[in-house]
Amino acid sequence: MSLPCNLTQPQENEYLNCIRCGLCLAVCPTYRVYKTETSSPRGRVALARKNLEGELELTPNLAEQMYACLDCLACNDICPVGIRPADLALEMRHVQEQIRPSGWKDTLFGELIAKPGRMKTATLPLRIYQSSGLRRLVYTLHLRRLLPARLRDLEGMLPHLPRRPLRRVLPEVTKAHSKSRYRVGFFLGCAQSLLFADESAATVRVLARNGCTVITPRDTVCCGMPAAGYGRMDLAKAHARFNIALFEKTETDVIVTDCATCGSKLKEYGQMLADEPEWVERAAAFSAKVRDISEFLMSIPLEKPAGRIEARVTYHDPCHLRRAQKVWQQPRALMQFIDGVDFVELPESDWCCGSAGSQLITHYETSLAVLERKMDNLKSTGAEMVASGCPGCQMQLTTGIKRRQMDVKVVHPIVLLDQAYAAEENSQ
Ligand code: SF4
Ligand code: SF4
After folding, report:
1. Same domain, yes or no: 285 and 329
2. Which residue has better confidence, 180 or 143?
3. In sequence order, which ranges of 259-355 are alpha helices (DSSP H)?
């Protein structure tokens, strides 16, 4: 049975040229765990092809293989003939959504994640859990060990939450400390605003210190990655159009983000809206301005901090920074710019940590199996800190560290630079 012709679906050239060489198997985290063909990129390409050619139904089992992909992009990078299995898996999720729409995704991505005010309300119980002292009590009395393992892991990944989302606290315009040399739009992602507000506050301080006037639009909505990851390209495109129009009003030279996932999606807006005449140029112009914070800072004359950070630090590459944006040297350079940092490479630093946004919730065993290897590698470095510029990776690493009871701190690279500037001020 062939698929209805009005569906948006992958083109033949996205799967026909697979020569079944198997190179992608060697880099695939899900294949490494399960060692089955269907859990590999090559298997996913074959399944997609059989479905698109009408030989296999798009059953829940087939769709599940597409959802089990971590979207780590390692297979895209290695394929010698240009097949992009990771992209194909996402497109197949989109095909499934068109055939069998899941109503809850409209609510989650359209009515909740796209509405910052509602996100704030939805996360209120977590803030109460923390600010009421209940969380401290749970830790002090060692009550976490009474929780079922999965719930304990999810609790453990929670960072220290801000009292208010940073989008509500940051001024829309932060002036440069000295002469303003750059007008920078700051894309403050949802997770950064709601969960990692301290990091993004550090980002803005570092930018302002380095001659940037920082414009942070309050009404920014989700970058679109979660909706796209669950097959709702329509909602992801709606988020993209909204953000583009919003940032056009800021008239900035560059758009910076400190979230690897947001950055990779923002850089795709041009491609996502390429077939919409009204948006194609605006989206391309927007994407061309987007920079990861480390990418931007290492492209300008960065002020050397006089303060020191005395710590052995390693670095985990977020897939959506290293593979999607090809940004991997800059975060390392940024940290090694700070005196006192004893930087040590993490073995397999570019292997996925198993987070992939929500895999610890949706594919718990797989996510943990992938994480365990990351933890073995982390332990081998003897590092006191592991840096990573992605909220999902940071939470996943935190879970792994708590499970192993390791004494390692998870940080965003920008926080180290901010602390080095602060250390210098404190010593004056
Ligand atoms: S997807 Fe690419 S790397 Fe993987 S088997 Fe096919 S041709 Fe080889
Ligand atoms: S994106 Fe990663 S997890 Fe998904 S098929 Fe490719 S290598 Fe495997």
Report:
1. no
2. 180
3. 260-266, 269-272, 280-289, 293-297, 319-325, 329-336
CATH number at residue 47: 1.10.1060.10
Q: In what order do the strands lie in the sheet with 182-186?
A: 173-174, 212-215, 182-186, 254-257, 290-292
For tokens 């299995």, name the residue: 85
155-164, 190-199, 280-289, 328-337: lowest mean pLDDT where? 155-164
Residue 184 lies in a domain: yes
Ligand 2 center–CA 76 separation, angstroms: 8
Are residues 380 and 316 part of one domain?
yes
Tell me, yes or no, whether 170 and 95 share the same domain. no
* Domain of residue 324, residue span: 311-423
* Overall number of domains in the chain: 3
How far apart (Å, rounded) are the C-alpha atoms in residues 391 and 190?
10
pLDDT band per the 50, 70, 90 thresholds, residue 1: very low
Examine the domain organization and report whether 87 and 208 are in the same domain: no
Element (H, E) at 137: helix 134-140
Q: Going by CA atoms, what residue is nearest to atom 5 of ligand 1?
A: 20
Instruction: Report, as an integer, the average pLDDT of 36-54.
Output: 95
Confirm or reject: Cβ of 378 under 6 Å from ligand 2.
Answer: no
pTM: 0.92
